Amino acid sequence: MDVCLIAGGKYHDIDFARLELLKLLAEHEAVRVTVLNDYSDGAAIRAADMLITYTCDIVPDADGVAALRDFLGQGRRWFALHGTNSILHFLEGGKVDCPDCAPEFMEMLGSQFQAHPPIGRFKVKVADKTHGLTQGLRDFFVEDEQYLCRFHPGNHALLTTRFAGVTPEFVHDTWPEQDHMVLYTRPSHGGEVLYLTLGHCRGRFDLRPLADFYPFVERGAWSHPVYYELLRRGIRWGLPAGSSSS
């Protein structure tokens, strides 16, 4: 089975995330992986049986969007992680804007990142305990970026988190108390998307060119066994029936 893994972008330890995802994919002996940095190889995307993306501030051009649409149009599944839905513009005043400049791409994904509070510990609740992706899971706490997004209609919430407060680093900086989806499925263009917002990671040299050196190594949800369980379930969900060997 051919899996296309797109791992690339800014401000994250993409090498770490790529390696961890490849290790998990290696648990399935029938899987062969094509690794890309962005959406420019439309042929590889169209040929894949499953798509996995871990990116930040990487947006496909019109040809990339067409390749994604064709991939989903074959009834296939896309497992999107963390910053896949992010567009980040750093303004002169220091705030981060997340403009609505890729509407078709974000509609495919079902959400667009808008802000997060400082990395901290927060609760994740199981919204659907009957779904195969969450069956048997309990509510849990995790230390990560708590993603606050604009969501499109049609998503099916599996995990949620609740937030109220301010995010002063972002243009969208005031948030009333409400639930935000952490894990959801979405029918999209004839296929299906599974989105998991958890998974921040950053090393000491990953903020370039904003900063030459970052004083911390951050692993976020990657430090929690439940995150690896969610990743394994997501990979099994995305592989064609009968191809999983783990």
TrEMBL record:
Gene3D superfamilies: 3.40.50.880. Residues 17-202 form the ThuA-like domain. InterPro entries: Class_I_gatase-like, ThuA-like. Coiled coil: none annotated. It comes from the Bacteria. SUPFAM superfamilies: Class I glutamine amidotransferase-like. This is Trehalose utilization. It comes from Niveispirillum lacus.
